[in-house]
Design a protein that fits this description.
elongated
Amino acid sequence: HFAKSFAAGPLRHLTCGHSYQCQSWVMRGSAMTLEKTKVPTEVLIRDGRTELLTLDRHGFTLSEFPFVPGDYFDSSWVIRDLYPECCEFVKQTTGAARVIAYNHIIR
C-alpha cells in the first residue's frame, strides 16, 4: 500500500508498506536450519532531488548526467563509448583523479 503525502503541489515523499525478508539460523534437533521470515516494515521514500545531498555527509550525491544516445543493450558499445563518458563525469563531479568503470547491469 502507498500513502501519498502532498506538500503544496507535487509529490514530495511517500510511505510504502514493505516486507523485508530476514534470514536466521535455528537449531532444530541436531541440525541447523536456515529460516526465512518476512518482517513488515514501513519505509519513507523521499524525493532526493529537492534535498542537498553531499558525498561527504551522505555517502552519495545526485547529479544530472547528460543523455548519451546509443544502444544500451549492446555491451560492447556501453563499454567502449559510455564507460569513458561516465568515468569523466564522475571525475568532474567528485574531483577524483582516477575512475574505473568495471561493471554494468541492464534493467
